[in-house]
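To: structure subgroup
Subject: Chain for Friday's discussion

All,

I'm putting the inputs and outputs inline so they're searchable in the archive.
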Amino acid sequence: MTNVPEMFGSLVFNEKVMKERLPSDVYKSLKKTIEEGKTFDIEVANVVASAMKDWAIEKGATHYTHWFQPMTGITAEKHDSFISPAPYGNVIMEFSGKELIQGEPDASSFPSGGLRATFEARGYTAWDPSSYAFIKDKSLYIPTAFCSYGGQALDKKTPLLRSMEAINKQVLRMLRALGDTETKTVTTTVGAEQEYFLIEKEMYSSREDLVLTGRTLFGATPPKGQEMEDHYFGVIKPRVASFMHELDEELWKLGVLAKTKHNEAAPAQHELAPIYATTNIATDHNQITMELMKKIADKHGLACLLHEKPFAGINGSGKHNNWSISTDKGVNLLNPTDTPEKNDKFLLMLCAVIKGIDEYQDLMRVSVASAGNDQRLGGNEAPPAILSIYLGDVLLNMLECIENGEEVTKEKLLKMDLGADVIPEFKKDNTDRNRTSPFAFTGNKFEFRMLGSSDSTACPNIMLNTIIADQVMQFAEQLENGKTVYEIVKDTMKNHKRIIFNGNNYSEEWVLEAEKRGLSNFKTTPDALPHYIDEKNIELFKRHNIYTREEIISRYEILVENYNKAVCLEAKTMVYMLKRDIIPAISEFSNDMVCTVANKQAVSKKISCFVELDLAEKTSAILEKLYEKAASLEIETEKLIAMADHNKVSLEIKNKVIPIMEEIRRLTDEAETMVGSDYWPYPTYADLLFYI
């Protein structure tokens, strides 16, 4: 029987292990570093490194690695053994404070957006003590930041840590202005719900589009999709349950608070939800989760798909980012309490979110922009590209009362009576949940629903932390100059109420209404990305020391290039599959229909050949169009490769390449519905989604 409390964190050099293995003064020094960001000297690092090494070896580790998050969207690691030469041809196991604190990977081999030339190879990794080291695959993993020789951030962790420091600094200033002298630190927290698909590994391996791009570039709609609504929260299939069980156990060993697992709305789709953690640790944990999902699925003969839209016509996969902010005293600053209209801290944090999201809609959209997410946003439980905030009627009513100088009217918390005595009464929440909202208040946190399933949670939270820090800084200054909390609320509602929308974000009416309100609607990544480097955004990041101008521009360049590469890869894969498999399959089927007609008529001219002739005619017509479109796609893709300006490439992709790809898919999917299954070269949607 699994002993979860004993298992949990067993492979983590956590606070419990530190307390047991470190001298008291060293433990206190390290704890102060973790909780308050205080620095420590090399002597402390040496003691920690020795204890960490001994613990890791006892757990079976032979190597250590500085584990970092370059701007690839995934993690990176270089493993070194603990061995050092000793007399008489022997070795000893050593690990110094210097090796713990600093590593040196090749900085020219990772995306830098122009910060590093190819010949400028030196880069550094630096230990992040706020995220616990852990053991995986017989190596000690040390979470680290990653920077260039010149000190520029080349990763996602460094700016995330900077943003957490920025919001801590500004919220503390605001709390002091409100008379709070006790709070020492403020921390943002995140719980990242992870959606994913599981399909048969053998079927996955037989489709180049899934293997090379992560999504199906072809696939006719199957007779059944998710319209029967029988998969969501349905009984979990045995193989999937076995996968989930092993995933939970491996995550628990690594200290990941995996809490909830269930079937999602689409067939073959599932979700794992953790308990919240500090934003930095939550981001590390989500990277671990995605990696283990793929590894463990493979062990079970399955493939885990983390693409935002692996299958057309059904739900895509997101990663809902549940964001909140708390003090070291355990106070959640987004908890309304029973009297939110009298809770100054809550009112100011709520207004900071409203004002910030309104002023920086573009940055929040940029934070989730990718080729994969463009496929997902706008339907099937994914929010649209228009940013808005859902507050629910109760909070909106409260804010409007304050705005208008009226007494706040409150709805009583209702009890639910379902009419069966055996069912106990329970309390009804004051607000419903809005599945269509990009940014929804859900009781004591905000749920940012626009993230794609393959995204790192770092970028959206860097944006969010920085934006809110900026608003809180302004509020703190206003409070220091004598402005009241209610006056700040009134100003916020007067100038930023347009961002609040409690209705159906999918409706055409909302699109028109949002346009009237002046809200942005960046439907695609090429539309959104140029706004990353708008001057107001560059100044925001510089103001809070999150990015230098060069670091922002580099990230913009990387995002544009990643988008271009992703779509070009899809286009080349599409041409490859068409030429090698799909066109020959349609041709063979059409030819066989013609041969069947000839054979029938050789027996008797009176035999009807209408069906065969009709199929031959229709598939031949599709075949000609596909051949023509494949040639056009190949030509357009080759043109892009020769273009030096990444921005022009993105526009060409949006305006020329993607329309051709969409037409090719339409034609191919139409052919799939006519060509016999013995001819079709790939597993169909029905095969992929329903046969685990």
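Points worth raising on Friday:
The mean pLDDT is 91.
Residues 603 and 682 are 35 Å apart (CA to CA).

D.
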